[in-house]
Amino acid sequence: MAGHAAAGLAAQGGEGTTLGILAGGGALPGKVAAAARASGRPVFLVGLEGFADPAELAPFPHKMIRIGAAGRILAELRAHGCRDLVMIGPVRRPSLLHLRPDAEGARILARLGVAAFKGDDGLLAAVIRLLGEEGFHVIGAHDVLRALLAPAGVMSRVAPDAQALADIARGVTVARLLGEADVGQGCVVQQGLVLAVEAIEGTDAMLARCGTLRRDGPGGVLVKLAKPGQERRADLPTIGPDTIRQAARAGLRGLAFEAGSTILAEREALVAEADTAGLFLYGFDPGADISAMMTERTVP
Length: 300
Prior knowledge:
The chain is an alpha/beta fold. It has helices spanning 2-7, 28-38, 54-57, 70-79, 96-99, 103-112, 120-133, 141-144, 162-180, 203-210, 241-249, 267-277; strands at residues 18-23, 43-48, 62-65, 82-88, 137-139, 153-154, 186-190, 193-197, 221-224, 238-239, 254-258, 263-264, 280-284. It contains 12 helices and 13 strands.
């Protein structure tokens, strides 16, 4: 793992300085930290309380801080010499009632203004701009660990057939419309019918709904697509082994995702889960005519 991680580390202007990681949930914050450390770069993580898993952060220098304590977060990052920052791991947007901002947090909220009430992408873009004004440089997790990004093509033993490719094409159209409205990044399509679209509830909750909505016949497809104008340094579409398990429980046939713009968490485990469940994993080019591939792709 260390060799692959070091090979995947992109050259950054701040290489050699401490990499700051604002850590949400899941295993990805630890993987990014391990990749940076394997390249010889020190790291410091701020785990967002209620989201980050302390066990994932334990091998690295870190502090657990609540999301509303912006003053303490910025102070810790500065004290540890962080200039480059990575924002990685799922974080649900807290309500203003539960945010309880400190003095610095209140000042930041005021500077965010109406962006605090926009969709996720609008808010993230504003947060990244504000961090830049505070002297930090936000980079993407995939700039540290290149292997996070999904490749093009079929990654699993099973490949999509003609019906699945048609559902993927339909899903890309729907997901693009959702993204233009800054609503979500995915949907589920079965035999041309849109069973569910992703909004604030997230992918897992959307998949949970699909189990009761599926039709007879060939199962549906989960389609994930980056939003048009997506802020690529944070919140790229992400799938992991648990996504596969949820999709299998919902009776889906496979997952399709935008190649080069989707983060694959725990890639080896992800592919193994898909092969065990008999689901396909397919990285597509959203600019291509996916339905036209039906005559070019044969299922092995």
